[in-house]
Design goal:
65 residues, mainly alpha, 5 helices, 68% helix, globular
Length: 65
């Protein structure tokens, strides 16, 4: 089963975006966003919603529900 960090990386790569580009759109540092993809940070609910809206995916999908 894929984890949040794996799915997050997958949707970013499908859209051919860099971590830096996504971090800028979300208003977080590159280090913060990279932490989401590497699994050592988790976004709060507001950031999860922002990520879902940006990528056009559901929270259920990203969370593997």
């Amino acid at each position: 089963m894929e984890t949040f960090c794996e799915r997050l990386r997958e949707v970013r790569l499908e859209r051919k975006l860099t971590q830096k580009e996504v971090a800028a759109v979300l208003g977080v540092s590159l280090t913060c966003y990279a932490g989401y993809e590497q699994g050592y940070r988790e976004p709060d609910f507001k950031m999860l919603i922002k990520i879902c809206r940006f990528f056009g995916v559901s929270a259920d999908y990203l969370l593997g529900i």
